[in-house]
Amino acid sequence: MKSLHYLATFTEEPEGGFTVTFADLPGCISYGETWEEAVEMAEDALAHWLADEKDVPEPSTFAQVRKGLEAGQHLVPVPVNPKLVAGYSKTVRVNISLPSNQLEQIDEKAKKQGLNRSEFLAKAALEYEVGA
After folding, report:
1. pTM to 2 decimal places
2. What strands, in cross-sheet order, belong to the sheet with 73-79?
3. What pLDDT is stored for residue 1 in this prediction?
4. Are 28 and 93 in contact (CB under 8 A)?
5. Residue 83 near residue 126 (C-beta atoms within 8 A)
6. What CA–CA distance (Å, rounded) separates 127 from 132?
7. Environment class of 26 (CB within 10 Å of its CB; exposed 0-12, middle 13-18, buried 19+)
8. β-pairing, 29-32 with 73-79?
9. Pick from 100, 97, 95, 91: which is nearest to 119 by CA?
10. DSSP of 74-94, one letter per residue?
11. Cα gap 58→62, rounded to integer Å
12. Cα separation of 10 and 21, whole Å?
């Protein structure tokens, strides 16, 4: 499967840190005190934006975005993390049927991990890459 990414513009701020914007994603903005933090925050902002959006645009190419770069700006490909996107997706209540002994095992394992039943099942689905 091809890795999907969006190009982000990292702008060095005079007072320090980096503001991050995505040309293809209106309102998707982030900030980091350091380059590493800015990258991490950009990945998080991208996932949050994509989870909320129904009409996701195709990513622009490097050639399309680099035209508008100014001094102190850097173009960085930010990968889409499907697990992070899923974590921001809207939750929906469902009713499922499971054998009682299986449900007991789920609840026991969830408790050991400090999770509730729903959190445990969602985490298990992500580990099996359901919806990725």
Report:
1. 0.67
2. 29-32, 18-22, 5-12, 73-79
3. 34
4. no
5. yes
6. 10
7. exposed
8. unpaired
9. 91
10. EEEEEE--HHHHHHHSPP---
11. 13
12. 7
Token look-up 């026991």 returns: 108
Point out which residues pair with 7 in neighbouring strands: 77
Question: Closest by alpha carbon to 72, among 14, 31, 28, 22?
Answer: 14
CB under 8 Å to 89, separation ≥6 — which residues? 51
Place of tokens 């499967």: 1
Contact predicate 20/10, CB 8 Å: yes
- The per-residue pLDDT for range 52-94, each reduced to its tens digit, is 777 888 999 998 888 878 888 999 999 998 888 878 877 778 8
What pLDDT sits at residue 131? 55
How far apart (Å, rounded) are the C-alpha atoms in residues 5 and 91? Answer: 25
> DSSP assignment, residue 17?
S
Average pLDDT of the chain is 88
Which three-class secondary structure state does DSSP give residue 5?
Answer: strand
Compute, in degrees rounded to 10, the torsion defined by CA atoms 93, 132, 59, 11: 80
Q: What is the pLDDT of residue 66?
A: 86
